[in-house]
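hey can u check if this looks right to u? its 358 residues, i copy pasted from the old doc so theres a chance i mangled smth
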Amino acid sequence: MRKLFLLMICSILGNIIHAQTAELDTTIYTFAEEMPRFPGCEEIDTTIQAKYQCSQQLMLNFIYQSVLYPYEAREAGNEGTVVTSFVVEPNGMVSQVSVLRDIGGGCGAETVKVIESINAGGIRFIPGKKEGKAVRVKLTIPIKFEIKEAPPFVVVNGDSIWVTLDTPLDYIGGKEALSEHLISTIKYPESGMDSCLVGDIDVQIRVDRSGGVSVLDMTDYCNLGFDFWFASTNAVTSTYGQWMVATYKNEPVPAVYEVSLPFRPTAASCKQTVAAYNQANDLAAEAVNLYNDKKDQEAVQKLSEAIATFDKNASYYYLRGQIHINNNQFNEACEDLRKAKEIAQLSDFDSVMTVICK
């Protein structure tokens, strides 16, 4: 009787173990009666095959919208198809992402990153099924990397700017008329008179399709401050409607125009400061000509003279620092760029400074 009881227990345990083993199917299938589906198509009142085709399109849309063409691959001209595989688990999560074929330049790694982001984004596949049960299924996906022709515009701070033009942006009457208008419009802030603040502010103007004007960017190399920025904005926006707008394919498009606005205090006590600044600018202009003629040492000397004459203009330090970089004089370049940043609080060279400043 006891033996019979033990045999019955063993038989029951065997059936339980067999059932558990059957439920825990760890096989990775490459084909299932129902293949895994990317979410988003389950509400479609149609066949499983139609849902699968819809899900495939959604998955590819997700990947292509998320993948970034690596800079290294673009520079090297790497084009082609990266083939990746991954397993969709019974719980809908992605695992075992791998690259079966790569084209180099970081394209394979970028594709893996995007597919792995499916889990991180909380996206879950509808798992594949075999005999009505969710199973592990491997999917193989080709992702094409193709260097396409660059668009005719760029996006800066959310604004589209056309860089390929049939007709360039121009002020009605030309540069001289624009200069006369700006000089007659600029109002030197009273707040800068006592300190004899002097300098030039470079402004990037965006002129839209209808001739509307806005400030895209502003560079204050002498750190003149908010009142001067406000005066600059008022001056350039006063040109509203006075532009011959740029065109592309015979259509008006937004484009950029750059101007430099001079601020010179008129108080008698500021004459010496203004004279020093103007002299320093002349020296810097000579330095630029020497630099363009590949006379680097002479250019550095002129810039040093400019700095000795007026040491509150970051652009002199930036230019001298750039020449030092070209000549692998990184310590000197680092010193100049740090001084420029100290004056104007600009971030243009931050990435360079992390490399050359140790």
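The chain has eleven helices and 14 strands.
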